[in-house]
Amino acid sequence: MLMKRYLIIAVLAFLASMGSASAQKVAVKTNALYWATATPNLGFEFALGERWTFELEGGYNPWMLNAEKNMKMKHWLVSPEFRYWFCNSFQGHFIGINGNYTQFNIGGLPFEIPSLFIDLTKDAPGIPDLQTSRIQGWAVGAGLTYGYAFPIARRWNLEFTAGFGWWYTVYDQYESRKCGLFQQTVEKHALGPTTLGISFIYMIK
User: Fold this and answer.
1) Is 32 helix (H, G, I), strand (E, B) or coil?
2) What SS3 class is residue 75?
3) Considering only CA atoms, which of 14, 45, 200, 39 is closest in space to residue 104?
4) Which SS3 state, helix, strand or coil, does residue 69 take?
5) Which residue, among 185, 193, 187, 184, has the nearest Cα to 166 in the 3D structure?
6) Global pTM?
7) Is residue 191 within 8 Å of residue 163, measured between CB atoms?
C-alpha cells in the first residue's frame, strides 16, 4: 500500500510538472557515479518557474554479474525531487527535497560495502556481509539535497549533488549461494545518503 501511494504521488507530480514546463526549460540528464555501478540511468528536469524545478530520475540494473557465484546487484530505483535555485534554474547553487523508492536483490559481491547509514531501529541487525549473504526486498526514503550546476558547453551542464535523510527498508536475507538458505527478515529505519551524483545534463530547450 505504501509503495502504491508513493508511486502515484510521484507520477502525479511528474505529470503536473510537464504541464507547467510546456514553455519552459527542459533538461535530460544521466548520473556518471550511478553508471559506475553498472546501472543505466536517466533523468528529466523541468522548470516550474524562475527558481523552481522538478526532477524525476530512475535507474535499472538487471544484470547477473556472475551466475556461478550468484553475484548480482539487481535493482530498480525511482527518485523525484523538487529544487529551489538561489539564482536562476539550472545554474549555480540549489537545495531540494528528494524521495526514493527501490526494489533490490543484491548479494555474492567480491568486495565489502562500507556502511554509510546510522541505524535508528533498536536491536535490529546491521547491514549483512554481502560477500556471503544476499538480501532481497524494498526501501523508501526522503531527504534534503544540496547541489551545484554550471555550463560546460552550449546546451551542456555539469552538476554535483549530495543528499542525506531517512530510509525505511524491509528485506529477506539468504546465504549468497544459489538456493541459499533463508536467514532472517529485517525491518529497519536508518539515516544516510539519499542521493549522490555527478551528472551530465543536456538542455533540450
Assistant:
1) helix
2) strand
3) 39
4) coil
5) 193
6) 0.85
7) no
Beta carbons of 126 and 188 less than 8 angstroms apart: no
Report long-range pairs for 35-43 (Cβ below 8 Å, ≥24 apart). 37/61, 37/73, 38/63, 38/65, 38/73, 39/73, 39/75, 43/79, 43/199
Cell, residue 40: 543505466
Residue 155 Cα distances to 37, 48, 82, 106, angstroms: 27, 19, 22, 37
27 CB neighbour count, 10 Å cutoff: 25
Instruction: Spell 138-176 as b/e; 16+ CB within 10 A means b.
Output: ebbbbbebebebeeeeeeebebebebbbebbbebebbbb
How do residues 86-142 score in pLDDT, each as one tens digit?
999 999 999 999 999 999 999 999 877 777 899 998 887 777 889 899 999 999 999
Task: Tell which residue, 93, 10, 91, 1, has the closest CA to residue 57.
Answer: 10
End-to-end CA distance of the chain: 38
Q: Which residues contact 105 (CB under 8 A, 6 or more apart)?
A: 72, 74, 75, 134, 135, 136
Backbone angles phi, psi at 115, to 5 degrees: -80, 125
- Pairing assessment for the beta strands 71-85 and 41-47 based on DSSP bridges: unpaired
